[in-house]
Design goal:
Elements (H helix, E strand, L loop, with lengths): L2 H12 L2 E3 L5 E3 H5 L23 E8 L6 E7 L4 E6 L4 E7 L2 E5 L5 E3 L4 E4 L5 E5 L3 E7 L6 E3 L5 E2 L1 H6 L10
Antiparallel strand pairs: 1-2, 3-4, 4-11, 5-10, 5-12, 6-9, 6-11, 7-8, 7-10, 12-13
Length: about 170
């Protein structure tokens, strides 16, 4: 992807107002502050999560995903699957590389590639898989969590969900 295209895509997501719970709207600048940040690819430190498969790692670009709004860069190995789940916060997803399958409940399966954008509303059930090594940014307007669900939409443990895709949760680095 050309830098100009990615920059334009990020501007489209970052400049608009992000709606939080209730009717009050908050800009990302209010969530994150005004500090300028530049991070090179070499400066990213990728971590595993205790609730995501080992094939999924992420680097925090801005904010604190455990306590509030954040921007993260996610990397998924080829063949990585994350079964049906939800998140408490809205998420804007900007795809940098790879071929990614996203299935949102009630919608047809989508193939997303470089330059694609997805919006995942809070509490919306979805599943995802990476076909050939994927990298994407996630901009969340609240704390990051993963709540796995069974086919009926009932919450289940990470261990129970990930065994279905022959995975187990990663560990913090």
């Amino acid at each position: 992807m050309h830098f100009r295209t990615l920059s334009f895509a990020i501007v489209l997501v970052v400049l608009p107002v992000v709606a939080q719970s209730g009717q009050q709207a908050t800009t990302l600048a209010q969530l994150f502050g005004q500090e300028a940040i530049i991070r090179t690819a070499q400066q990213n430190r990728f971590n595993a999560s205790t609730v995501l498969p080992n094939c999924y790692t992420y680097a925090v670009e801005r904010g604190d995903p455990q306590t509030g709004a954040s921007v993260t860069l996610s990397k998924l190995a080829a063949g990585c699957e994350v079964p049906w789940h939800t998140h408490s916060a809205n998420a804007h997803v900007l795809f940098v590389s790879g071929t990614f399958q996203l299935q949102m409940k009630g919608q047809p399966l989508q193939l997303l590639t470089q330059g694609s954008y997805a919006y995942v509303p809070a509490n919306h059930q979805h599943e995802e898989s990476c076909l050939n090594g994927c990298t994407y940014y996630v901009i969340r307007d609240g704390a990051t969590d993963v709540r796995y669900v069974d086919p009926a939409g009932k919450e289940i443990s990470a261990e129970a969900a990930l065994v279905v895709v022959s995975e187990h949760p990663g560990s913090h680095n």
